[in-house]
Amino acid sequence: MRTLGIGLLLLLAVFGSALPAQCATLYVKSDSPYDGPGNDWDHAYHTVTAGLNAAATGDEVWVAAGLYVEKITLKSGVELYGGFPTGGGVWETRSPETNTATLDGNRGGSVVTVPAGVTDAVIDGFTIQNGTGTFLRGGYYSWSGYYGGGIHAVSSSFVISNCIIADNEAAYGGGIYCQGGRPSIVRNLITRNTVDAGYLRSAWGGGILCEENSLATIANNTISYNSAPNMCSGGIQIIQSPAIITCNRIEHNTSLWASAGIDINSCSPIISGNFICANAVTNPVIPGIGTALSGGAALWAGNGAPIVTNNTIVDNGTDLGGAIYLTRTNGRFSNNVVAFNSCGIYGGEQVQNTVFANNCMYENGDYDYSGVPPGAGDIHSDPRLADWAAGDYHLSPASPCVDAGLSDAPGLTSMDIDGQGRIWGRAVDIGADEIWPVSVKIDIKPGGSPNPINLASRGLTTVAILSDSDLDARWIDPASIVFAGCAVAVQGDRPMAGAEDVDRDGDQDMVMHFETRLLQLDAGSSSASLVGRMPDGQPVVGSDSVVIIRSR
């Protein structure tokens, strides 16, 4: 045992409880030989609840793969991680995809509760299933019922990430319910959750419901196959909350009446960079009532000013506003692909101040716009998606949406849906996807180094694009190639380009020649770049070092 100096003993006597505690890692494994005290895998707690109860602020709780039939309550400053191997392991062996740690609510309430006042809590790497919600009296419009089948959070700030929230049910927020607070919902699969409060009763937010000033961030999730079979908003509902919804796949969600994808009510969220596709309102004929309200299979917005930017809204279906239904809305809709929906954008009452700009509107049933004017800068051409019928909503390189958006549109994210940066090219692309080039290796003056260039020369500079196992450089169109601002030189009417194995690796490379005096380089240039395109329009880029030995 180490001895403490007199000075430190005095500090402990005066300030003892104010000194920071040592953060700990606690372990949970359902079949460990000893149930506690959680200091290693052999002494792991048998339940997640026991691990959380023993944890203090700053601690982590590690959970081995297995089925945990229990309901848990998160704590401030405690991070909960699933995905460790069945027998336990170190952080490097953690894999939630292969080491499934399942929290099963056994249909007895909310699986995960985040109480009021909790801050800095984390839950990461779990499957959360078979929850039925927590009863709240009152709530929005004074509806009473069960809220938050999978996760129930009130006035709290937490992160839920890398989780699967599936097969939960409640009247409101089948998968996740957040009232107030600052929840961060990122990189999760939220699927097959439902809201159901009985025939003709209110029920909404099959996947997620955020209300009452919830400052939620909902990013990089897949939100799919959730349903609201008795009401509206199968995917996400946002009520009176300035949420940010960005870079999600929101698809194959359904509702009875309206807003199968996203429902916005009395708020002004930012909705940017999402695939909102293949959502459907079933639109039945109800006895004694007639046809149900059927607006906004992808997006329904009322009583707010949403910013809707760079989304891909495709293959959504209902009668009015198959893509977007607006009422009493003063928002901004820019750079969206709105195509192949049962109908386009429908404006109801009081939407005169809504602004549309630079959207791609194409083959949207009976109309692109109804009740609202077309947007300035809109294009009406096939967006040329990779394969929208098969669920691939990325742009193809030849899409007219490439470089066709407003680069200063409000709500524009710094990354596209694949995590690639915005912007590449002259302007931002329309839609959730940004086309990025293939990086190629080039060799200026093949076989030589350090690639000297005499800018006063009236001769030619040779540049090779090198082939490898992933690229046959001969696929690149010589007519599209620009090196240091200069096109390939021509002889007669043919570009001076051909195939040669310049690096002697057995692959044929593309070799081109450029007029040296036309190169846009100067005495201080230390590198030169090349751009070009594949036959399908995919851009390519490459660069190599140069040494300028004489300027013009």
Note down, in words, how this protein is organized.
This protein is 3% helix and 36% strand. β56 and β57 (539-545) form a beta hairpin. It starts with 5 loop residues before the first helix and ends with a strand. The model is unreliable at 1-20 (pLDDT under 50).
**For the residues shown, what is the average pLDDT?**
91
Shape: globular
Stretches with pLDDT under 50, minimum 5 residues: 1-20
Q: Count of helical segments?
A: 2
User: What is the radius of gyration?
Assistant: 29 Å
Largest sheet: 12 strands, parallel
Give the distance, in angstroms, between the N- and C-terminal Cα atoms. Answer: 77 Å
Structural class label:
mainly beta
Summarize the amount of helix as a percent range: under 10%
User: Strand order of the main beta sheet, please?
Assistant: 1-2-5-8-13-17-21-25-29-35-38-41
